[in-house]
Write a structure and sequence with these properties.
single chain; 225 residues; 2 domains; 65% helix
Length: 225
């Protein structure tokens, strides 16, 4: 058991952090929501009412969609673009999806390679792009969930101020929707760009996201150029 936990430590660490942050957000969000309700002379909500409400869902989905968009675009961009000196990039000249031999697919697959890596046709095509497909699907689902829950929250605010309700399309083309969306997107793009660039010159000993401390700045991959 101890070995299994150690071998899965990174996943377990972030799963615990995620659950802790989500639970913390739910209690903090409930407190803020109920304070606002009381200030407007309305009744507050119980915990389970709040976490199943559009107010909570829109905030969670808003963050999820921006995170998965970040990873989707980063995975896709690193296929075709390189950054000289960054450990987050392939070497200049290695742009593209790579050869079957280097990717160990088809006749180049190893005996213990995943089954679909050995297959031909659509199964290999799907598996070869499965990470990008799943990241993209989660992004689209989260974006749709944000838009639906956001429409409900926006219309509740509209009614409270005596303004007309809008439909789903009206909301996703509104300034409110894109204000909420773009403020998350820009922060994700800044974070990824900073990581790619700063990792050229800065180091973190022991981290897989950093080059070894003594690696020259100009080396893009840790094995040298």
């Amino acid at each position: 058991m101890a070995k299994a936990i150690r071998n899965q430590g990174l996943s377990i660490c972030f799963a615990v952090l995620f659950i802790g942050a989500l639970v913390g957000q739910s209690f903090a969000g409930l407190a803020v929501y109920n304070e606002d309700q009381i200030a407007h002379g309305a009744a507050g909500l119980g915990y389970w009412e709040f976490v199943t409400s559009s107010n909570f869902v829109v905030d969670v989905a808003e963050n999820w969609q921006s995170e998965y968009l970040q990873f989707f675009l980063f995975i896709f961009a690193t296929i075709w673009f390189v950054q000289h000196g960054s450990p987050e990039s392939k070497k200049p000249g290695d742009e593209g999806p790579d050869s079957d031999e280097n990717q160990m697919v088809g006749r180049f697959a190893k005996p213990d390679s995943p089954k679909w890596a050995k297959a031909d046709g659509w199964r290999r095509l799907v598996y070869s792009n499965s990470l990008l497909l799943v990241m993209g699907a989660v992004f689209l689902l989260s974006w749709w969930l944000q838009s639906v829950a956001g429409t409900v929250v926006f219309n509740a605010d509209q009614l409270e101020h005596g303004q007309p309700e809008v439909g789903w399309f009206g909301y996703v083309t509104s300034a409110d929707f894109w204000d909420r969306t773009l403020q998350n997107w820009q922060s994700e793009f800044l974070a990824v760009g900073s990581m790619v660039t700063l990792s050229i010159f800065l180091r973190q000993r022991g981290s897989a996201e950093s080059k070894p401390v003594g690696t020259p700045h100009h080396e893009t991959a840790t094995e040298g150029e």
